[in-house]
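Exercise 4. Each item below gives a protein and its sequence. For each, produce the structure-token representation.

Item: Cleavage stimulation factor subunit 3 (Cyprinus carpio).
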Amino acid sequence: PVTAEIAPEAAEYIPEKVKKAEKKLEENPYDLDAWSILIREAQNQPIDKARKTYERLVAQFPSSGRFWKLYIEAEIKAKNYDKVEKLFQRCLMKVLHIDLWKCYLSYVRETKGKLPSYKEKMAQAYDFALDKIGMEIMSYQVSVLTVLAVGSYAENQRITAVRRVYQRGCVNPMINIEQLWRDYSKYEEGINVHLAKKMIEDRSRDYMNARRVAKEYETVMKGLDRNAPSVPPQNSPQEAQQVEMWKKYIQWEKSNPLRTEDQTLITKRVMFAYEQCLLVLGHHPDVWYEAAQYLEQSSKLLAEKGDMNNAKLFSDEAANIYERAIGTLLKKNMLLYFSFADYEESRMKHEKVHSIYNRLLAIEDIDPTLVYIQYMKFARRAEGIKSGRTIFKKAREDARTRHHVYVTAALMEYYCSKDKSVAFKIFELGLKKYGDIPEYILAYIDYLSHLNEDNNTRVLFERVLTSGSLSPEKSGEIWARFLAFESNIGDLASIVKVERRRFMAFKDEYEGKETALLVDRYKFMDLYPCSPCELKALGYKDVSRAKYAAMMPEAVVTPSTPALKDEADRKPEYPKPDTSQMIPFQPRHLAPPGLHPVPGGVFPVPPTAVILMKLLPPPSCFSGPFVQVDELMESLRRCVLPETVDAAVEMITGKQFEMSREGNGPVENHAVANKSLKRPNADSDEEEDKGSIAPPIHDIYRVRQQKRVR
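Answer:
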């Protein structure tokens, strides 16, 4: 009974680290650290319990060959072969990852070994793998195993099949291509020595070319993290470096390193590079778009050469690239939807274009304003102005749309149907709904100004500014535009009148700054009647510039249309340091402890000292003698400096006084003490004086003389 009560609790126990990981994934579903915790936990659980975690993993990262392989290996370990084959069906064709395909071949080899048709099955599996990942730089092992797995044909058929695999591999750039070529040479020589020479010579040139490209291939691929799961752009330096390296690899393939004239082969190699890139950068719309563009260009090139079959194949494949993008990782990316629609429009498939736009509009948690605008433009281009009006009607009925749709529809009527009255009606209709949005009012004013409708423009200004629908905070730019309008076409009295009304509207803000408002009367575009310093002193604010500067970083969200949560709001963030807590730090190998709060470094040298150190000779220039600092300091401490200048001179010239050994005896002149050193035959006083002078302590000449005597 006791164990029966404990067992359910033990089964439901969730480790604390797993709870924290789940909480992180709620905030950011692409947190790789949190996923790694869940993966480790799943690997320690029975597959029946861990399967849910694996399914979540491959659903979140559908293009990650590494995660699919982990899931499949867990099922193989549990011998759930039916589930393994279903997993391979789900991922194998979509994820061209070399390790995943090797796992598939290993599975076929181990599970189908007892079947009577084992060799045929293996041969089919390896041929299938070569077709899909034969251009992979690491495909040497697959090529070798394909040779070994040739089915049970007749002898001649077997020789032909093996030769075909060898010849295919020896012209394909890969690592270990030299070993594959040696194996092929031995194989040919084992069949027929005389025929082998000709067969090898025929393939030698292509092999040398492939070997040259293989070295370049290895260099280009070096540094690429091909196992990284695809996550939304994080704008980190590491990610930017990887993106640059992937694009460098793709550009290298586009440069035709094999120097072949077969455009189909070039296109297949480039698209294989794009497929490898998309496994890692699947959330980057530019990679999808560039891949589709390349296929479109290749299709046109082949059509010009007369290869219509491959041209149509690549054209359809370009559409398939767009379809894969918006159907998997980038379901809400408008850029790809619009470019897909334009591509289908260029192929005159208008029904398909309608379905693309309607598919995007069916997504509920997006702002459809831009979608309707592009949809209207397409309908007008392809089917005429009436079709564009139909889309506009549909847009008006959608509560999610914003004022931009009315502006687009009005301008479309004016420019395309040349009907001013219809455009007026649309602007007036929008004014009833968006009369509190200054951006819409300014668009209406710009339209009237373009028509040179002075009276109508002035009436619109009065209606908007006196209706009370605009709050004072939003009316600043409207007043500035009204003043500019009167400055261009009105007289001085009307200009002063508008200035006075504007001052009254912003009396609290511009109290004591009346001169700042005067600047707007005389400015023109980016020309101002005062210098920047004077403008700052006046307290002047350029309303229009401030408005547009505020609009640049993010889209304008009006009160009438609440902001819709976009995928960008949930993009992952990487940790950022608190720069306010930073202190100078210079890392140093074996740094002495205690010199810096952070172990492993020291405080950097001040900039002024760095300049001085650069001017000094390097330490290697000085090889000794080195000063014994302790002894030098002790000598300086005991040194007794003379109190007078005369005493200092006597000390320098060597005539210093000597203290008696007792320290309190009489002082004796050094010169007098040395009188006994006089020469006995000296007659003159001059000679006596000269003899009484002691030689210098460091007399180099005397030292050399003494050395010669010795």
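Check: Residues 193-221 form the longest helix (29 residues).
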